[in-house]
Amino acid sequence: MVPEILKECRTRNIGLIVLDPAYKMEEDDSNEKEAGSVRKLLRHIDRLSTELDAAVLTGAHFAKGNAAHKEALDRISGSGVFARDPDVFAVLTPHQGGDDCFTVHTILRNLPPIEQFVVRWKFPVMVREDNLNPDDLKQIAKPSGKGFRRRPPSDFVFNTLKELPRLGADVTNPRNLVFSGAELREAFEKAGHHKDWVKDLTDLAVRDGQIRIIQSPTRGGEKFYGLPSAIDAWKPELFRLVEADRAVNRKTRRQEG
Fold first, then answer.
1. Domain assignment of residue 135, yes or no
2. In terms of Cα–Cα distance, which of 205, 175, 173 is closest to 188?
3. Cα 97 from chain centroid?
4. Share of the chain above pLDDT 70, in %
5. Potential cystine with 230: which of 37, 50, 171, 177 (Cβ 3.0-4.6 Å)?
6. What is the pLDDT of residues 45-60, one digit of tens each?
7. CA angle 105, 107, 110 (to 5 degrees)
8. Are residues 110 and 8 in the same domain?
9. CB 234 within 8 A of CB 216
10. Residues 124, 147: one domain?
11. Looking at residue 167, what is its pLDDT?
């Protein structure tokens, strides 16, 4: 198909080529879930862009399930190469504002970042809805004993850790400035959010530099979560406790020997 597209576009001085959906460019024996097949397809797309000096826009569809439960890069069906190869990646995810409303999330390789925003389809164009919160993605509610629970705000982990220590806690004790994994899950549950969100939102907070994680080399590999300054304060105390554990273990082994 590529030679035909090249031939047609050269005669028309085309500046933008739209391939929607991209998988229609695939060969019969290719598989959109296999990275090798997708890389081959993307090489064809690169060829179109390079030889014609044109931009190429491709469309893709979401995987099954609730897209709001996934990071933007992971919402696209098939191999992750689809999402990680483009210079400009834009995802339109259904928003709580209605069936015609979407959050726009962009990942830009060579341009300054753009904050998420919301658009609404008003024929024949999309119109920005700056009064809507882009984090309010459309949900498939999860049942619980207290009814349905929505997705926590993206900054929930940061704001929760920022409020430490707990009321009345000793601020001079660095342990009171961090959460263990169990304590963080408990914070989600107390706020009415499902603990399944813990990993996604902690990964997001770490990526944005809002929080840090430290893992104990002993004590079952327990992880602790906190603001960067809190982790810096807790780290020497944690390793002091680890060394004390090791000393006790060495003493026990000598006595048993």
1. no
2. 205
3. 22
4. 86
5. 177
6. 899 999 999 999 988 8
7. 145
8. yes
9. no
10. no
11. 66
In whole angstroms, what is the distance from residue 72 CA to residue 248 CA?
47
Pick from 121, 127, 142: nearest CA to 196: 142
Residues 44 and 53: their CA atoms lie apart, in Å, by 14
- Domain endpoint, select from 80, 105, 128: 128
Residue 133 located in a structural domain: no
- Domain with 164 in it: what CATH number? 1.10.10
Specify whether the backbone of 168 is left (phi greater than 0), alpha (psi in -120 to 50) or beta: left
Q: Which residue has the tokens 């460019």?
A: 25
Is 66 among the domain residues? yes
Query: What is the pTM (predicted TM-score) of this model?
Result: 0.51
Looking at the fold, whether 73 and 181 belong to one and the same domain comes out as no
Q: Are 160 and 169 in contact (CB under 8 A)?
A: no
Bridge pairing between strands 179-180 and 147-149? unpaired
Length of the chain as a residue count: 257
Query: Is there a contact between 212 and 224 (Cβ–Cβ < 8 Å)?
Result: no
- Same domain, yes or no: 171 and 104: no
Residue 146's H or E segment, with its range, is none
**Residues of the domain holding 30:** 2-128
φ, ψ at 15 (rounded to 5°): -105, -20
Contacts with 153 (C-beta within 8 Å, 6 or more apart), sequence order: 135, 159
